[in-house]
Amino acid sequence: MLEKNSAEFNVTRSYLEWLTSIPWGKLKKEQFEIKQAQQILDAEHYGMAEVKDRILELIAIGKLKGSIKGKILCFIGPPGVGKTSIASSIAQALNRDFVRFSVGGLSDVAEIKGHRRTYIGAMAGKPIQALKSSKSMNPLILLDEIDKIGSSASGRGDPASALLELLDPSQNAHFLDHYLDIPVDFSNCLFICTANVDHTIPTPLLDRMEIIRLAGYDLEEKLHIAHNYLVPRALEATGLQEKEESTNNQNLPSITDDALRALIKGHAREAGVRSLQKLIEKICRKLAFKKVQQTEITENPKQLLVDTTNLNDFVGQPKFAKDRLYDVQILPPGVVCGLAWTSMGGSTLYIETTKFNLIPPSSSSSDKQATEKNFQSPRLSTTGQLGSVMEESSRVALAHVRAKLDSIGLQSTLNGHEIHIHVPEGATPKDGPSAGITLATALISLATGIPVPSNLAMTGELSLTGRVLPVGGIKEKVIAARRAHISYICLPYENERDFNELPDYLKQGITPYFAQTFDDVLSVTFFQSGEEANNESGVSSSSSSSKNALTYDPNILNKLKQAISPSSSHLPSSSPQ
Question: Which of 243, 244, 374, 487 is the most buried (most CB within 10 A)?
Protein backbone atom coordinates (compact mmCIF):
# COMPACT_ATOMS: atom_id res chain seq x y z
CA MET A 1 0.00 0.00 0.00
CA LEU A 2 1.32 3.41 -0.98
CA GLU A 3 1.82 6.14 1.55
CA LYS A 4 0.10 9.50 0.94
CA ASN A 5 3.43 11.24 1.00
CA SER A 6 4.86 8.85 -1.58
CA ALA A 7 5.94 10.34 -4.90
CA GLU A 8 3.87 7.76 -6.77
CA PHE A 9 0.69 8.19 -4.73
CA ASN A 10 -0.88 11.00 -6.81
CA VAL A 11 0.23 9.41 -10.08
CA THR A 12 -1.33 6.07 -9.15
CA ARG A 13 -4.50 7.68 -7.80
CA SER A 14 -4.95 9.75 -10.95
CA TYR A 15 -4.46 6.63 -13.08
CA LEU A 16 -7.05 4.68 -11.09
CA GLU A 17 -9.52 7.57 -11.34
CA TRP A 18 -9.15 7.54 -15.13
CA LEU A 19 -9.65 3.76 -15.24
CA THR A 20 -12.81 3.90 -13.16
CA SER A 21 -14.24 6.90 -15.04
CA ILE A 22 -14.30 5.05 -18.37
CA PRO A 23 -17.85 3.69 -18.94
CA TRP A 24 -16.68 0.12 -19.60
CA GLY A 25 -19.36 -1.90 -21.38
CA LYS A 26 -22.02 0.81 -21.02
CA LEU A 27 -23.87 1.32 -24.31
CA LYS A 28 -26.63 3.89 -24.66
CA LYS A 29 -29.77 2.46 -26.25
CA GLU A 30 -30.09 3.67 -29.80
CA GLN A 31 -33.28 4.46 -31.68
CA PHE A 32 -33.77 3.26 -35.22
CA GLU A 33 -37.00 4.99 -36.23
CA ILE A 34 -36.55 6.34 -39.76
CA LYS A 35 -39.59 8.63 -39.69
CA GLN A 36 -38.57 10.27 -36.41
CA ALA A 37 -34.96 10.63 -37.58
CA GLN A 38 -36.16 12.28 -40.79
CA GLN A 39 -38.19 14.82 -38.78
CA ILE A 40 -35.20 15.64 -36.55
CA LEU A 41 -32.87 16.14 -39.50
CA ASP A 42 -35.39 18.25 -41.45
CA ALA A 43 -36.26 20.39 -38.44
CA GLU A 44 -32.76 21.83 -38.18
CA HIS A 45 -31.31 21.63 -41.70
CA TYR A 46 -32.58 22.44 -45.17
CA GLY A 47 -31.39 20.44 -48.17
CA MET A 48 -28.37 18.17 -47.59
CA ALA A 49 -30.20 15.30 -49.28
CA GLU A 50 -27.09 13.13 -49.69
CA VAL A 51 -26.13 13.42 -46.01
CA LYS A 52 -29.67 12.72 -44.80
CA ASP A 53 -30.09 9.75 -47.13
CA ARG A 54 -26.80 8.26 -45.90
CA ILE A 55 -27.84 8.62 -42.26
CA LEU A 56 -31.26 7.08 -42.92
CA GLU A 57 -29.51 4.18 -44.63
CA LEU A 58 -27.37 3.74 -41.51
CA ILE A 59 -30.48 3.73 -39.33
CA ALA A 60 -32.18 1.18 -41.58
CA ILE A 61 -29.14 -1.14 -41.36
CA GLY A 62 -29.00 -0.60 -37.62
CA LYS A 63 -32.64 -1.61 -37.28
CA LEU A 64 -31.99 -4.83 -39.18
CA LYS A 65 -28.72 -5.70 -37.39
CA GLY A 66 -29.46 -4.18 -34.00
CA SER A 67 -26.47 -1.80 -33.93
CA ILE A 68 -24.30 0.52 -36.01
CA LYS A 69 -20.60 -0.26 -35.89
CA GLY A 70 -17.44 0.76 -37.67
CA LYS A 71 -18.64 3.75 -39.68
CA ILE A 72 -16.39 6.73 -40.34
CA LEU A 73 -17.95 9.53 -42.39
CA CYS A 74 -16.21 12.67 -43.61
CA PHE A 75 -18.20 15.76 -44.60
CA ILE A 76 -16.24 17.96 -47.02
CA GLY A 77 -17.57 21.35 -48.03
CA PRO A 78 -17.14 25.13 -47.80
CA PRO A 79 -17.38 26.95 -44.45
CA GLY A 80 -20.87 27.67 -43.16
CA VAL A 81 -22.82 24.92 -44.96
CA GLY A 82 -23.72 23.07 -41.72
CA LYS A 83 -21.14 20.28 -41.49
CA THR A 84 -20.66 20.55 -37.73
CA SER A 85 -24.25 21.33 -36.80
CA ILE A 86 -25.77 18.43 -38.73
CA ALA A 87 -23.49 16.04 -36.83
CA SER A 88 -25.25 17.11 -33.64
CA SER A 89 -28.63 16.44 -35.29
CA ILE A 90 -27.43 13.01 -36.38
CA ALA A 91 -26.50 12.18 -32.78
CA GLN A 92 -29.97 13.30 -31.68
CA ALA A 93 -31.63 11.22 -34.40
CA LEU A 94 -29.68 8.13 -33.29
CA ASN A 95 -30.14 8.92 -29.55
CA ARG A 96 -26.38 8.92 -29.06
CA ASP A 97 -24.27 11.21 -26.92
CA PHE A 98 -22.48 13.88 -28.94
CA VAL A 99 -18.82 14.72 -28.32
CA ARG A 100 -16.82 17.15 -30.43
CA PHE A 101 -13.14 17.97 -30.43
CA SER A 102 -11.17 19.91 -33.01
CA VAL A 103 -7.96 18.54 -34.47
CA GLY A 104 -7.19 21.71 -36.43
CA GLY A 105 -3.60 22.76 -35.69
CA LEU A 106 -3.04 19.74 -33.45
CA SER A 107 0.64 18.83 -33.74
CA ASP A 108 1.34 16.56 -30.76
CA VAL A 109 0.65 12.84 -31.11
CA ALA A 110 0.08 12.68 -27.35
CA GLU A 111 -3.18 14.62 -27.85
CA ILE A 112 -4.50 11.51 -29.62
CA LYS A 113 -2.61 8.66 -27.98
CA GLY A 114 -2.17 10.15 -24.52
CA HIS A 115 1.00 10.84 -22.50
CA ARG A 116 3.17 8.26 -20.80
CA ARG A 117 2.40 8.12 -17.08
CA THR A 118 6.01 8.91 -16.25
CA TYR A 119 5.53 12.55 -17.38
CA ILE A 120 4.42 15.22 -14.96
CA GLY A 121 0.84 16.25 -15.72
CA ALA A 122 0.29 13.23 -17.95
CA MET A 123 -3.28 12.52 -19.07
CA ALA A 124 -5.21 10.39 -21.52
CA GLY A 125 -5.74 11.42 -25.14
CA LYS A 126 -8.78 13.18 -26.55
CA PRO A 127 -10.59 9.99 -27.68
CA ILE A 128 -10.46 8.60 -24.13
CA GLN A 129 -11.59 11.99 -22.79
CA ALA A 130 -14.54 11.80 -25.21
CA LEU A 131 -15.65 8.47 -23.71
CA LYS A 132 -15.26 9.87 -20.21
CA SER A 133 -17.38 12.96 -20.91
CA SER A 134 -20.10 11.04 -22.79
CA LYS A 135 -20.40 8.35 -20.10
CA SER A 136 -21.07 5.72 -22.77
CA MET A 137 -19.01 3.54 -25.11
CA ASN A 138 -21.03 4.36 -28.23
CA PRO A 139 -21.11 8.15 -28.60
CA LEU A 140 -20.99 10.05 -31.87
CA ILE A 141 -17.50 11.60 -31.94
CA LEU A 142 -16.97 14.57 -34.24
CA LEU A 143 -13.40 15.29 -35.36
CA ASP A 144 -13.63 18.86 -36.59
CA GLU A 145 -11.27 20.48 -39.15
CA ILE A 146 -9.40 17.28 -39.92
CA ASP A 147 -7.92 18.87 -43.05
CA LYS A 148 -6.02 21.34 -40.84
CA ILE A 149 -4.34 18.79 -38.60
CA GLY A 150 -0.71 19.55 -37.80
CA SER A 151 2.28 17.76 -39.33
CA SER A 152 5.19 15.84 -37.89
CA ALA A 153 7.53 18.82 -38.41
CA SER A 154 7.12 19.81 -34.76
CA GLY A 155 9.13 16.76 -33.66
CA ARG A 156 6.28 15.50 -31.44
CA GLY A 157 5.11 12.73 -33.73
CA ASP A 158 2.52 12.69 -36.48
CA PRO A 159 -1.06 13.02 -35.13
CA ALA A 160 -2.52 12.12 -38.55
CA SER A 161 -0.79 8.76 -38.40
CA ALA A 162 -2.02 8.27 -34.84
CA LEU A 163 -5.59 8.72 -36.07
CA LEU A 164 -5.16 5.76 -38.43
CA GLU A 165 -5.58 3.32 -35.56
CA LEU A 166 -8.60 5.17 -34.22
CA LEU A 167 -10.41 5.52 -37.57
CA ASP A 168 -9.70 2.04 -38.92
CA PRO A 169 -12.68 -0.28 -38.21
CA SER A 170 -10.35 -3.29 -38.18
CA GLN A 171 -8.10 -1.79 -35.49
CA ASN A 172 -10.14 0.52 -33.27
CA ALA A 173 -11.64 -2.36 -31.27
CA HIS A 174 -8.24 -2.49 -29.51
CA PHE A 175 -7.16 1.15 -29.42
CA LEU A 176 -4.17 1.51 -27.10
CA ASP A 177 -3.84 4.78 -25.22
CA HIS A 178 -0.34 5.46 -23.86
CA TYR A 179 -1.70 6.71 -20.53
CA LEU A 180 -4.15 3.90 -19.79
CA ASP A 181 -1.88 1.31 -21.43
CA ILE A 182 -4.77 -1.12 -21.90
CA PRO A 183 -6.90 -1.71 -25.03
CA VAL A 184 -10.11 0.32 -25.31
CA ASP A 185 -12.95 -0.63 -27.68
CA PHE A 186 -13.99 2.21 -30.01
CA SER A 187 -15.75 -0.06 -32.53
CA ASN A 188 -19.20 0.97 -31.28
CA CYS A 189 -18.52 4.69 -31.80
CA LEU A 190 -19.73 6.56 -34.86
CA PHE A 191 -17.00 8.88 -36.13
CA ILE A 192 -17.77 11.92 -38.26
CA CYS A 193 -15.01 14.17 -39.58
CA THR A 194 -15.36 17.59 -41.20
CA ALA A 195 -13.07 19.34 -43.68
CA ASN A 196 -13.12 22.17 -46.18
CA VAL A 197 -10.86 20.43 -48.72
CA ASP A 198 -9.58 16.89 -49.16
CA HIS A 199 -6.14 17.42 -50.72
CA THR A 200 -4.58 18.34 -47.36
CA ILE A 201 -5.84 15.17 -45.66
CA PRO A 202 -3.17 12.42 -45.70
CA THR A 203 -4.08 9.73 -48.24
CA PRO A 204 -3.98 6.76 -45.81
CA LEU A 205 -6.36 8.63 -43.51
CA LEU A 206 -8.64 9.67 -46.37
CA ASP A 207 -8.79 6.05 -47.55
CA ARG A 208 -10.40 4.97 -44.28
CA MET A 209 -13.27 7.46 -44.49
CA GLU A 210 -16.43 7.60 -46.54
CA ILE A 211 -16.49 11.00 -48.26
CA ILE A 212 -19.74 12.96 -48.49
CA ARG A 213 -19.40 16.31 -50.23
CA LEU A 214 -21.56 19.26 -49.31
CA ALA A 215 -21.95 21.95 -51.93
CA GLY A 216 -22.74 25.59 -51.23
CA TYR A 217 -26.23 27.06 -51.26
CA ASP A 218 -27.69 29.03 -54.13
CA LEU A 219 -29.96 32.09 -53.81
CA GLU A 220 -33.26 30.24 -53.40
CA GLU A 221 -31.81 27.83 -50.83
CA LYS A 222 -30.36 30.69 -48.80
CA LEU A 223 -33.69 32.50 -48.98
CA HIS A 224 -35.49 29.44 -47.63
CA ILE A 225 -32.93 28.95 -44.85
CA ALA A 226 -33.09 32.61 -43.85
CA HIS A 227 -36.89 32.71 -43.84
CA ASN A 228 -37.43 29.45 -41.93
CA TYR A 229 -34.37 29.20 -39.69
CA LEU A 230 -32.14 32.27 -39.38
CA VAL A 231 -34.73 35.05 -39.02
CA PRO A 232 -36.88 33.29 -36.35
CA ARG A 233 -33.78 32.41 -34.32
CA ALA A 234 -32.41 35.95 -34.55
CA LEU A 235 -35.77 37.45 -33.53
CA GLU A 236 -35.92 35.10 -30.56
CA ALA A 237 -32.29 35.75 -29.55
CA THR A 238 -32.82 39.53 -29.53
CA GLY A 239 -36.09 39.37 -27.57
CA LEU A 240 -38.25 40.52 -30.47
CA GLN A 241 -40.19 37.25 -30.51
CA GLU A 242 -41.08 34.74 -27.83
CA LYS A 243 -40.22 31.10 -28.44
CA GLU A 244 -43.85 30.00 -28.69
CA GLU A 245 -44.96 33.11 -30.57
CA SER A 246 -46.02 32.70 -34.20
CA THR A 247 -43.98 34.40 -36.89
CA ASN A 248 -47.26 35.42 -38.55
CA ASN A 249 -48.02 37.88 -35.75
CA GLN A 250 -48.64 41.22 -37.47
CA ASN A 251 -47.06 43.21 -34.63
CA LEU A 252 -43.69 41.44 -34.84
CA PRO A 253 -40.77 43.09 -36.66
CA SER A 254 -40.24 41.40 -40.01
CA ILE A 255 -37.89 41.27 -42.97
CA THR A 256 -39.49 40.95 -46.41
CA ASP A 257 -38.41 38.28 -48.88
CA ASP A 258 -37.28 40.96 -51.33
CA ALA A 259 -35.06 42.45 -48.64
CA LEU A 260 -33.58 39.03 -47.85
CA ARG A 261 -32.95 38.45 -51.54
CA ALA A 262 -31.20 41.81 -51.84
CA LEU A 263 -29.21 41.03 -48.68
CA ILE A 264 -28.00 37.73 -50.14
CA LYS A 265 -27.14 39.22 -53.54
CA GLY A 266 -25.39 42.30 -52.23
CA HIS A 267 -23.74 41.17 -48.99
CA ALA A 268 -23.63 37.37 -48.56
CA ARG A 269 -22.51 35.61 -51.70
CA GLU A 270 -20.31 33.01 -50.03
CA ALA A 271 -21.22 29.32 -50.31
CA GLY A 272 -22.41 29.00 -46.70
CA VAL A 273 -24.84 31.01 -44.60
CA ARG A 274 -22.57 32.15 -41.77
CA SER A 275 -22.20 35.71 -43.09
CA LEU A 276 -25.91 35.83 -43.83
CA GLN A 277 -26.63 34.80 -40.25
CA LYS A 278 -24.39 37.58 -38.90
CA LEU A 279 -26.11 40.16 -41.10
CA ILE A 280 -29.59 39.05 -40.01
CA GLU A 281 -28.50 39.21 -36.36
CA LYS A 282 -27.17 42.73 -37.00
CA ILE A 283 -30.53 43.77 -38.46
CA CYS A 284 -32.40 42.28 -35.51
CA ARG A 285 -30.18 44.11 -33.01
CA LYS A 286 -30.98 47.41 -34.71
CA LEU A 287 -34.67 46.50 -34.77
CA ALA A 288 -34.54 45.77 -31.03
CA PHE A 289 -32.95 49.18 -30.43
CA LYS A 290 -35.64 50.93 -32.52
CA LYS A 291 -38.41 49.05 -30.74
CA VAL A 292 -37.16 50.03 -27.29
CA GLN A 293 -36.86 53.64 -28.47
CA GLN A 294 -40.46 53.61 -29.68
CA THR A 295 -41.85 52.07 -26.49
CA GLU A 296 -40.24 54.84 -24.46
CA ILE A 297 -41.96 57.46 -26.62
CA THR A 298 -45.39 55.94 -27.24
CA GLU A 299 -47.52 53.12 -25.86
CA ASN A 300 -48.61 51.94 -29.31
CA PRO A 301 -45.43 51.60 -31.40
CA LYS A 302 -45.84 50.86 -35.10
CA GLN A 303 -44.64 47.62 -36.65
CA LEU A 304 -41.02 47.63 -37.70
CA LEU A 305 -40.45 46.44 -41.26
CA VAL A 306 -37.21 45.92 -43.18
CA ASP A 307 -37.63 46.08 -46.95
CA THR A 308 -35.51 46.99 -49.95
CA THR A 309 -36.02 50.74 -49.37
CA ASN A 310 -34.43 50.82 -45.91
CA LEU A 311 -32.16 47.75 -45.98
CA ASN A 312 -29.02 49.86 -46.46
CA ASP A 313 -29.83 51.74 -43.23
CA PHE A 314 -29.30 48.47 -41.34
CA VAL A 315 -26.36 46.84 -43.16
CA GLY A 316 -24.79 49.62 -45.19
CA GLN A 317 -24.13 49.76 -48.91
CA PRO A 318 -23.89 46.46 -50.84
CA LYS A 319 -20.43 44.91 -51.08
CA PHE A 320 -21.23 43.42 -54.48
CA ALA A 321 -22.63 45.94 -56.93
CA LYS A 322 -23.03 43.56 -59.90
CA ASP A 323 -23.09 39.86 -60.66
CA ARG A 324 -20.38 39.87 -63.33
CA LEU A 325 -17.06 41.63 -63.73
CA TYR A 326 -18.03 42.26 -67.37
CA ASP A 327 -21.68 43.21 -67.13
CA VAL A 328 -21.84 43.98 -70.85
CA GLN A 329 -23.49 42.39 -73.84
CA ILE A 330 -20.23 41.95 -75.76
CA LEU A 331 -16.97 40.73 -74.22
CA PRO A 332 -13.77 42.23 -75.63
CA PRO A 333 -11.71 39.82 -77.79
CA GLY A 334 -9.38 37.81 -75.59
CA VAL A 335 -11.71 37.75 -72.57
CA VAL A 336 -13.56 34.58 -71.52
CA CYS A 337 -15.64 33.70 -68.46
CA GLY A 338 -14.43 30.61 -66.61
CA LEU A 339 -15.87 28.67 -63.68
CA ALA A 340 -13.71 27.94 -60.66
CA TRP A 341 -14.01 25.95 -57.44
CA THR A 342 -12.57 27.29 -54.19
CA SER A 343 -12.79 26.27 -50.55
CA MET A 344 -15.50 28.95 -50.23
CA GLY A 345 -17.58 27.41 -53.05
CA GLY A 346 -17.88 28.13 -56.77
CA SER A 347 -17.18 31.43 -58.51
CA THR A 348 -16.89 32.93 -61.96
CA LEU A 349 -13.34 33.71 -63.04
CA TYR A 350 -12.62 35.92 -66.03
CA ILE A 351 -9.49 35.30 -68.07
CA GLU A 352 -8.11 38.45 -69.72
CA THR A 353 -5.48 38.38 -72.46
CA THR A 354 -3.76 41.06 -74.50
CA LYS A 355 -0.76 41.25 -76.82
CA PHE A 356 1.70 43.87 -78.03
CA ASN A 357 4.50 43.88 -80.57
CA LEU A 358 7.98 43.02 -79.34
CA ILE A 359 9.74 44.31 -82.48
CA PRO A 360 11.23 47.76 -81.82
CA PRO A 361 10.96 50.37 -84.60
CA SER A 362 14.03 50.46 -86.86
CA SER A 363 14.92 52.55 -89.90
CA SER A 364 16.91 49.70 -91.47
CA SER A 365 14.83 46.98 -93.07
CA SER A 366 17.66 44.43 -92.74
CA ASP A 367 17.93 45.16 -89.03
CA LYS A 368 14.18 44.81 -88.70
CA GLN A 369 14.22 41.43 -90.43
CA ALA A 370 17.00 40.24 -88.14
CA THR A 371 15.04 41.44 -85.14
CA GLU A 372 11.91 39.65 -86.37
CA LYS A 373 13.82 36.36 -86.52
CA ASN A 374 14.78 36.80 -82.87
CA PHE A 375 11.16 37.38 -81.83
CA GLN A 376 9.32 34.71 -83.81
CA SER A 377 8.13 32.79 -80.74
CA PRO A 378 5.63 34.70 -78.61
CA ARG A 379 6.55 35.48 -75.04
CA LEU A 380 4.12 34.69 -72.25
CA SER A 381 3.68 36.59 -69.00
CA THR A 382 1.01 36.02 -66.37
CA THR A 383 -0.32 38.04 -63.44
CA GLY A 384 -3.06 37.59 -60.87
CA GLN A 385 -1.24 35.35 -58.35
CA LEU A 386 -1.51 32.21 -60.47
CA GLY A 387 -0.25 29.01 -58.87
CA SER A 388 2.19 26.57 -60.44
CA VAL A 389 -0.55 24.34 -61.88
CA MET A 390 -2.32 27.27 -63.52
CA GLU A 391 0.99 28.58 -64.85
CA GLU A 392 1.55 25.22 -66.53
CA SER A 393 -2.01 25.25 -67.89
CA SER A 394 -1.33 28.63 -69.52
CA ARG A 395 1.81 27.29 -71.23
CA VAL A 396 -0.03 24.17 -72.42
CA ALA A 397 -2.88 26.34 -73.73
CA LEU A 398 -0.47 28.60 -75.62
CA ALA A 399 1.37 25.63 -77.16
CA HIS A 400 -1.87 24.04 -78.37
CA VAL A 401 -3.23 27.34 -79.70
CA ARG A 402 0.02 28.02 -81.60
CA ALA A 403 -0.21 24.58 -83.21
CA LYS A 404 -3.84 25.24 -84.15
CA LEU A 405 -3.06 28.66 -85.64
CA ASP A 406 -0.03 27.28 -87.47
CA SER A 407 -2.20 24.66 -89.18
CA ILE A 408 -4.38 27.37 -90.76
CA GLY A 409 -1.65 29.89 -91.52
CA LEU A 410 -2.52 32.34 -88.73
CA GLN A 411 0.65 31.92 -86.67
CA SER A 412 1.63 35.51 -87.43
CA THR A 413 -1.21 36.76 -85.22
CA LEU A 414 0.77 35.75 -82.12
CA ASN A 415 4.39 35.44 -83.30
CA GLY A 416 6.57 38.40 -82.49
CA HIS A 417 4.29 39.49 -79.67
CA GLU A 418 4.31 39.37 -75.92
CA ILE A 419 1.11 37.77 -74.65
CA HIS A 420 -0.07 38.86 -71.23
CA ILE A 421 -2.61 36.73 -69.34
CA HIS A 422 -4.26 38.26 -66.30
CA VAL A 423 -6.88 36.90 -63.93
CA PRO A 424 -8.60 39.75 -62.03
CA GLU A 425 -8.69 40.09 -58.25
CA GLY A 426 -4.93 39.87 -58.06
CA ALA A 427 -4.90 39.77 -54.25
CA THR A 428 -6.54 36.32 -54.33
CA PRO A 429 -4.24 33.34 -55.04
CA LYS A 430 -5.55 31.06 -57.80
CA ASP A 431 -4.51 27.58 -58.81
CA GLY A 432 -5.86 24.40 -60.35
CA PRO A 433 -6.05 22.69 -63.75
CA SER A 434 -9.69 23.47 -64.62
CA ALA A 435 -8.93 26.75 -66.44
CA GLY A 436 -7.18 25.03 -69.36
CA ILE A 437 -9.91 25.36 -72.00
CA THR A 438 -10.77 28.86 -70.77
CA LEU A 439 -7.17 30.01 -71.25
CA ALA A 440 -6.96 28.44 -74.71
CA THR A 441 -10.28 29.94 -75.82
CA ALA A 442 -9.15 33.38 -74.64
CA LEU A 443 -5.95 33.04 -76.69
CA ILE A 444 -7.91 31.97 -79.80
CA SER A 445 -10.23 34.94 -79.33
CA LEU A 446 -7.23 37.25 -78.94
CA ALA A 447 -5.48 35.90 -82.04
CA THR A 448 -8.57 36.00 -84.30
CA GLY A 449 -10.24 39.09 -82.87
CA ILE A 450 -13.54 37.20 -82.54
CA PRO A 451 -15.29 37.86 -79.20
CA VAL A 452 -16.78 35.09 -77.06
CA PRO A 453 -20.50 35.29 -76.13
CA SER A 454 -20.88 37.02 -72.77
CA ASN A 455 -23.45 34.51 -71.47
CA LEU A 456 -21.16 31.50 -71.99
CA ALA A 457 -18.87 30.12 -69.27
CA MET A 458 -16.60 27.10 -69.36
CA THR A 459 -14.41 24.84 -67.25
CA GLY A 460 -12.14 21.89 -68.07
CA GLU A 461 -8.53 20.78 -68.15
CA LEU A 462 -6.78 20.84 -71.53
CA SER A 463 -4.10 18.37 -72.58
CA LEU A 464 -1.30 19.24 -74.97
CA THR A 465 -2.98 17.31 -77.78
CA GLY A 466 -6.31 19.06 -77.25
CA ARG A 467 -8.20 16.55 -75.13
CA VAL A 468 -10.64 18.04 -72.58
CA LEU A 469 -10.19 16.28 -69.24
CA PRO A 470 -12.78 16.06 -66.42
CA VAL A 471 -12.69 18.35 -63.39
CA GLY A 472 -14.40 18.46 -60.02
CA GLY A 473 -16.79 20.81 -58.23
CA ILE A 474 -19.46 20.75 -60.95
CA LYS A 475 -22.32 21.58 -58.58
CA GLU A 476 -20.50 24.55 -57.08
CA LYS A 477 -19.59 25.83 -60.54
CA VAL A 478 -23.18 25.53 -61.79
CA ILE A 479 -24.34 27.47 -58.72
CA ALA A 480 -21.77 30.17 -59.55
CA ALA A 481 -23.04 30.29 -63.14
CA ARG A 482 -26.64 30.71 -61.95
CA ARG A 483 -25.58 33.46 -59.56
CA ALA A 484 -23.93 35.34 -62.45
CA HIS A 485 -26.94 34.77 -64.76
CA ILE A 486 -24.90 32.64 -67.16
CA SER A 487 -27.18 30.82 -69.62
CA TYR A 488 -24.70 28.45 -71.31
CA ILE A 489 -21.85 26.41 -69.85
CA CYS A 490 -19.27 24.20 -71.55
CA LEU A 491 -18.15 21.21 -69.48
CA PRO A 492 -15.90 18.18 -70.11
CA TYR A 493 -17.75 15.28 -71.67
CA GLU A 494 -16.89 12.98 -68.76
CA ASN A 495 -18.61 15.39 -66.35
CA GLU A 496 -21.98 14.89 -68.06
CA ARG A 497 -23.01 12.38 -65.40
CA ASP A 498 -22.16 14.89 -62.65
CA PHE A 499 -24.36 17.51 -64.30
CA ASN A 500 -27.22 15.06 -64.78
CA GLU A 501 -27.16 14.19 -61.07
CA LEU A 502 -27.83 17.81 -60.07
CA PRO A 503 -31.32 18.78 -58.86
CA ASP A 504 -33.65 20.00 -61.59
CA TYR A 505 -33.95 23.48 -60.11
CA LEU A 506 -30.18 23.98 -60.46
CA LYS A 507 -30.20 22.95 -64.13
CA GLN A 508 -33.20 25.08 -64.98
CA GLY A 509 -32.32 27.95 -67.33
CA ILE A 510 -28.83 26.61 -68.10
CA THR A 511 -27.95 24.91 -71.39
CA PRO A 512 -24.94 22.58 -71.02
CA TYR A 513 -22.42 21.62 -73.71
CA PHE A 514 -20.12 18.65 -73.22
CA ALA A 515 -16.78 18.69 -75.02
CA GLN A 516 -14.34 15.84 -75.62
CA THR A 517 -11.77 17.91 -77.52
CA PHE A 518 -10.81 21.54 -77.80
CA ASP A 519 -12.35 21.54 -81.29
CA ASP A 520 -15.67 20.86 -79.56
CA VAL A 521 -15.09 23.91 -77.37
CA LEU A 522 -14.36 26.08 -80.41
CA SER A 523 -17.44 24.73 -82.17
CA VAL A 524 -19.63 25.61 -79.19
CA THR A 525 -18.04 29.02 -78.73
CA PHE A 526 -17.91 30.28 -82.29
CA PHE A 527 -19.78 28.06 -84.74
CA GLN A 528 -22.86 26.39 -83.29
CA SER A 529 -25.79 27.51 -85.52
CA GLY A 530 -23.54 29.89 -87.48
CA GLU A 531 -23.11 33.51 -86.41
CA GLU A 532 -26.58 34.05 -84.94
CA ALA A 533 -25.31 34.15 -81.37
CA ASN A 534 -22.75 36.86 -82.04
CA ASN A 535 -25.05 38.80 -84.37
CA GLU A 536 -27.77 38.96 -81.71
CA SER A 537 -25.17 40.23 -79.23
CA GLY A 538 -24.12 43.03 -81.54
CA VAL A 539 -21.06 41.29 -82.97
CA SER A 540 -20.68 41.36 -86.74
CA SER A 541 -18.22 40.63 -89.50
CA SER A 542 -16.29 43.50 -90.99
CA SER A 543 -18.51 43.45 -94.09
CA SER A 544 -21.57 44.40 -92.06
CA SER A 545 -20.01 46.39 -89.24
CA SER A 546 -21.90 49.10 -87.40
CA LYS A 547 -20.65 51.97 -85.34
CA ASN A 548 -21.28 50.37 -81.93
CA ALA A 549 -20.46 46.74 -82.80
CA LEU A 550 -17.23 44.82 -82.41
CA THR A 551 -16.02 43.51 -85.77
CA TYR A 552 -14.00 40.53 -86.92
CA ASP A 553 -12.58 39.30 -90.21
CA PRO A 554 -14.89 36.65 -91.74
CA ASN A 555 -11.96 35.12 -93.62
CA ILE A 556 -10.24 34.28 -90.33
CA LEU A 557 -13.47 32.77 -89.04
CA ASN A 558 -13.77 30.58 -92.14
CA LYS A 559 -10.16 29.40 -91.80
CA LEU A 560 -10.76 28.48 -88.16
CA LYS A 561 -13.95 26.66 -89.05
CA GLN A 562 -12.14 24.53 -91.64
CA ALA A 563 -9.43 23.57 -89.12
CA ILE A 564 -11.71 22.04 -86.47
CA SER A 565 -13.54 18.72 -86.44
CA PRO A 566 -15.97 18.69 -83.50
CA SER A 567 -17.49 15.51 -82.09
CA SER A 568 -20.98 16.72 -82.96
CA SER A 569 -22.70 13.56 -81.73
CA HIS A 570 -22.89 14.92 -78.17
CA LEU A 571 -23.19 18.65 -78.86
CA PRO A 572 -26.66 20.27 -78.84
CA SER A 573 -27.88 21.84 -82.03
CA SER A 574 -28.57 25.20 -80.40
CA SER A 575 -25.88 27.73 -79.56
CA PRO A 576 -25.35 30.54 -77.07
CA GLN A 577 -27.63 33.38 -78.03
Answer: 487
